[in-house]
Amino acid sequence: MNTVGLYIHIPFCKNKCFYCDFPSFSGKESLMVDYAKALSKEIDNSCQDKLISTIFIGGGTPTYLCIEGWKIIAESIKNLNFVSKDFEFTVEGNPNSFNEEQLEIFKTMGVNRISMGLQAVQEHHLKSIGRIHTIEDFKKSYIMLRENGFNNINVDLMFGLPNQTLAEWIESLEQVIELKPEHLSCYSLIIEEGTKFYNLYENESLILPNEDVERDMYAVTKDILKKNGYEQYEISNYAKKGFECKHNKIYWQLNNYVGCGSSSHSYINGIRYRNESNIEKYIGRMNESNTVVVEEFKNSEKDDIEEFMFLGLRLNDGIDIREFQHRFGVSIFDKYKDIIEKYVHMELLNLEENRLFLTSKGMEFSNQVMADFIL
Ligand code: SF4
């Protein structure tokens, strides 16, 4: 039986944030129950013969899903085969979208980790990026989670926002740290095509912090979080000891995972699968033919090697060079000797005790380094 991480996609949001290019939609609430039924079928079909090591329910805004939808999904989760009883089980949500009834269902399902999107603590920034909650809403939801016994919480923050100053970014970090979440994800804003921000950017009506300020924001993040007991374990992720996200590590270590729901991707034994992304079509396909996969792609060995490299290098622990040899039957130096030597010499990569990893400086230039590992 394959051991896999299970990702479940909930594609509904109350409103679309201005920067977001995730496969999520507003105004489709009437489809929630039918979607949950189709999703539940897919979970039953895809996971019967798998051993589940982690679950991550993401979106979209999973906590926006109606209670009836959650009850349907809970029925499917109950029947899965788990590696162990206390496996990591995350649900993503946004401030203002949690309620007591839903949290009770989460507890019976075994959810033990909540990931909450916040992005910034200044009301004007929340508004200007299209978030529909206030900082007070966030604090109320956070307290509600703690009162309900959730003792593993991640908070998402974003830097490099339009007109954001370094001082404001520090204020966001410090206010969140006061609440003592176990985990923080700190991503920089990327302007993605198809978003409201993309159009504004194209029209030159979006003022973004310059590269130097962004670099400072990244650097202070590491410092401030370290001083407060959070270890960086991935380019954008920080955790208290023992609270690293196990599910995301499955992606970064190129291990097997199954994705259920519209737009989901799976990776099983070297084959990538992509699901139908249109919600209506997803429901229709599931009901009519029991299959929602619209693309199947066998990774070549070259694809696997490249992905193993640039995903693994995101982690502070980097890549285990023995694992490379074991997976691909060839030494990492046969493939990348010159590149490794070049970046070790430039002090962007380090090689120590069988591990190859980005140095602190290397993390800042990670895109440049990783691009060189494309064969
Ligand atoms: S809540 Fe999350 S998924 Fe939904 S639009 Fe905003 S960023 Fe995208």
How would you describe the overall organization of this protein?
- A hairpin with a 2-residue loop joins strand 8 and strand 9 (237-239).
- The strands form three sheets. Strands 1, 2, 3, 4, 5, 6, 7, 8, 9 and 10 form a ten-stranded mixed sheet that branches. Strands 11-12-13 form a three-stranded antiparallel sheet, with no helix packed on it.
- The protein has two domains: 2-252, tm_1862 like domain (pyruvate-formate lyase- activating enzyme, Alpha-Beta Horseshoe), CATH 3.80.30.20; 301-371, Arc Repressor Mutant, subunit A (Orthogonal Bundle).
- Helix 2 packs parallel to helix 3 and helix 6 packs parallel to helix 8.
- The chain is built from 15 helices and 16 strands.
- With 375 residues, the protein is an alpha/beta fold.
- The structure holds iron/sulfur cluster.
- Residues 13, 16-17, 20, 22, 24, 59-61, 94, 117 line the site of iron/sulfur cluster.
Task: Please summarize what this structure is.
The chain has helices spanning 32-47, 67-78, 100-109, 123-128, 135-147, 166-178, 196-202, 211-227, 246-252, 279-289, 301-312, 321-328, 332-345, 360-364, 366-371; strands spanning 2-10, 50-59, 81-82, 88-93, 113-119, 153-159, 183-188, 231-234, 237-239, 257-260, 265-268, 271-275, 293-298, 319-320, 349-352, 355-358.
Q: Helix and strand layout, with pairings?
A:
Elements: E1 2-10, H1 32-47, E2 50-59, H2 67-78, E3 81-82, E4 88-93, H3 100-109, E5 113-119, H4 123-128, H5 135-147, E6 153-159, H6 166-178, E7 183-188, H7 196-202, H8 211-227, E8 231-234, E9 237-239, H9 246-252, E10 257-260, E11 265-268, E12 271-275, H10 279-289, E13 293-298, H11 301-312, E14 319-320, H12 321-328, H13 332-345, E15 349-352, E16 355-358, H14 360-364, H15 366-371
Parallel strand pairs: 1-2, 1-10, 2-3, 2-4, 4-5, 5-6, 6-7
Antiparallel strand pairs: 7-9, 8-9, 11-12, 12-13, 14-16, 15-16
Bound molecules: iron/sulfur cluster.
